[in-house]
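QUALITY CONTROL LOG
STEP: pairwise intake check
CHECKER ROLE: data steward
CRITERIA: each record must contain a sequence immediately followed by its structure tokens, with no blank fields

ENTRY 1 OF 2
RESULT FIELD BELOW
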Amino acid sequence: MPEFEFKKGMKVEISIEEEGFRGAWFSGTIINPPAKNTQKVLIEYDALLADNGSKPLREKVDFVQIRPIPPRENHRLFKLDEDVDAYYNDGWWEGVITQIVVNDDDDDCKYCVYFRPTREQCEFNVCDLRLHREWDGAKWVPPLEEDARATEVKINGKEENPLSKGNRVEVCSDEDGFEGAWFAASIIEVPRKDKFLIEYHDLMTDDNTQLMREEVDAFHIRPCPPKVEVVKFNQYDEVDALYNDGWWVGIVLKVLGRSKYKVFFKATNEEMEFKHEKLRLHQDWINGKWVVASEALNL
């Protein structure tokens, strides 16, 4: 048995041993944990479909073929010859950075990735890449960037400002219809103290030709919250729900079947259904650190 316990409803990644799929990892959900004295787990893929194409593919896989979902760093630039995973054809494929393609119009860049098994090279945006890591049954190797930074902070006695140029952040708005929601963005410039020029990841300009940029103050910006693995949300849990390109605060009103939940939004007095992967545990950024609702009451 593996050191890490895989539970029902948990998001995982699965490797496939068939020709043409070896070396790639595909996201899915554990439907049934293994019975006693077995090494098989029933999983359902997020993107791969059954033969008739009408529903997600389900199959039993061995323990050695599954691992937790690797957390993603908030922001990362890659180097030449660095091993990465590239998202392609619904899966993550291991490759190596062979070229960095700089865009003169802005600070963004693309990366050429070479895949050794197929001897192919493709170009990717940074959002479709992640540092290649191996799961040893209990931890990720090499360690996560956040873990390495925590060690560095302990040694040097100082922390890096998370609201620096290039960092991924979340931004809220006071406009009607958007109150209380947080939208993913990146800091483009810090023109002056407590002011930030940001570019949204999903919100477009009125003419729908480019990503929207605007200047915001410190009260409307925060770092991206750390990912908290939740196997199953419970009734009355405070959550953020991904809807219309933003994260909206709500309460789990009812736990439905098939990893779905009914969420109530107090701000609009509305109820909506969400799949598990569209929810995250609600956290607040208070005094420079992340706290969950129960902890916030004690501050």
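ENTRY 2 OF 2
RESULT FIELD BELOW
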Amino acid sequence: MQSEVSPPPSVLLVEAFYGGSHKQLIDLLKENIDGCSVFTLPAKKWHWRARTAALYFSQTIPACPSYRVLFSSSVLNLCELVALRPDLAHLKKVLYFHENQLVYPVRKDQDRDFQYGYNQVLSCLVSDVVVFNSSFNMDSFLSSIPSFMKKIPDHRPKDLDRLIRPKCVVLSYPVQFPDVSRFLPKHKRVQCTAEQSHVDDITTLQGEQQQFRADEEETPRCDPGGCAARASQSEGGAADAVKPLHIVWPHRWEHDKNPELFFKTLLRLKERGLDFHLSVLGETFTDVPEVFASSRLLLDSHILNWGFLPSKEDYLRVLCEADVVVSTANHEFFGVAMLEAVHCGCFPLCPKSLVYPEIFPAQYLYSTPEQLCKLLQGLCRRPDVARRHIIKVDTSSYSWAALKPRFQDLLLDECP
């Protein structure tokens, strides 16, 4: 009996930084799209990958007449690759932006290296389709091109944004949401099956949030008896009122996630005598901001979990146990960690900026550090509000199941 012969590859997947969300996307495409051939470099030394990966791939990707589509992230200088490999230039070239270097935050503007943003602009110019994971990512990139190019001393190119814009589409990053039902506490399992009419009075919740924002007192009080009585109406009842609010921060330990604001806010809550539990998760890299070490000492009595959890199961279990997930980011083009936490039943609090207004309704957004502090202050005093609330974010629309058809269309040998 003859074995089936696999069809020749038609899709060339190239990833210069094969780690994190970049790796997850490439793996998803390879597993679910027929005819993929994959070439990658490890996720190390990002700046060197952006500068030299094209030359490496030009020597290691073999010639293949069956290729029809080339897909890469914007880490790769696609312009250099197709110049070095003319046989790849005729393919449908799809460039995916997980982030963009034109607005990626740096500690000082003079620290921004012009070449990385410039490489991304060049890659767009030779691409057939330029894909962004959010409208914020696309709009911030295109609108920044004119001012970015003004850094060139003279003989500046013009209208590059107008040349690139017609190629651009927004296609959300596809998140694989696992089944976490076995980790969910009882009140979250009840939420999953509840009707919208059984929400902890969404009107009441919104009213209380407005009260938190408007209240100018330093330590607004809630009558413990009244809170306990209201909490007893929810699944879990008095236990919800007694158990401290569990706050989780599941982001990379880097300055662009603004950990300084997060820990400053928690220390203000502690100074006001408010009780809460804390889990600080996320990956660490070579240069960990000093604020993590100092805050760990100051918040030690509140900490349940501290540091990266290499087991995905352990990570999901902590998210399911938590009540509130907080972002204080100065930079976010999509935000997988926040969506994963919402999938696990966490009440989200995000800045009213960056990508967040695209994904999260206004009731989960704060405009100032003071608003964040007051919202957390209110939820510390009324943890039942977070626990009884059914979150108004449709995470399923960001799932691979929902987005797979669009990625399949993207990797067809047809330009839009």
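INTAKE CHECK: passed for both entries
DESCRIPTIVE NOTE, ENTRY 2: The domain at 11-174+399-410 is CATH 3.40.50.2000 (Rossmann fold).
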